[in-house]
Design goal:
GO terms for molecular function: ubiquitin protein ligase activity; zinc ion binding. Its main location: nucleus. Keywords: Coiled coil, Membrane, Metal-binding, Nucleus, Repeat, Transmembrane, Transmembrane helix, Zinc, Zinc-finger. It comes from Cacopsylla melanoneura. By secondary structure, this protein is mostly helical. It has a domain of 94 residues. It is built from four helices and five strands. The protein has a three-stranded antiparallel sheet with strand order 4-3-5. Strand 3 and strand 4 form a beta hairpin. The protein is elongated. It starts with 9 loop residues before the first strand and ends with a helix.
């Protein structure tokens, strides 16, 4: 499962569900999952366009993998909107460690990620949304 709200999403590929246009949720974890998917597809489109422009690769065909990487990388449980730390089981993943490029809980940020640059996931979601809007405008 990807997101607690996935029942509202429509299938676009065989193994990845995409949210409808204008999808909104209060769950920062779901928002980040959604934005990671959008970034993944924007990068895929840009790669495809670049691939088609090069003379040496113009005749190549890009095929989907049997199993998508996103399924395992960004999975959430249906039971909860919050995602909890695998080390500190009672702590929610509420921070984004920019140094390590991963979600962390407060305890992890104070110990293993002490000197690392971080942001709250709500802030990261806003920044990611702006980044995606910019990338999408480049693709259009």
């Amino acid at each position: 499962t990807h997101c607690p709200h996935k029942a509202d999403w429509t299938p676009k590929t065989s193994n990845i569900l995409l949210p409808p246009l204008g999808f909104k949720t209060r769950s920062p974890a779901c928002q980040l999952y959604y934005y990671y998917i959008v970034i993944y597809y924007v990068k895929l489109i840009l790669l495809f366009q670049a691939h088609q422009r090069l003379k040496i690769t113009k005749d190549h065909t890009i095929k989907a993998k049997e199993e998508g990487d996103l399924k395992d990388t960004f999975s959430l449980t249906d039971a909860s909107r919050d995602v909890f730390c695998s080390v500190h089981l009672q702590e929610k993943l509420s921070l984004f460690c920019e140094t390590c490029d991963k979600l962390t809980c407060r305890d992890c940020q104070l110990t293993d990620h002490r000197q690392h640059k971080y942001k709250f996931i709500n802030e990261m979601a806003v920044e990611t949304r702006q980044l995606i809007k910019g990338l999408l405008s480049e693709v259009r």
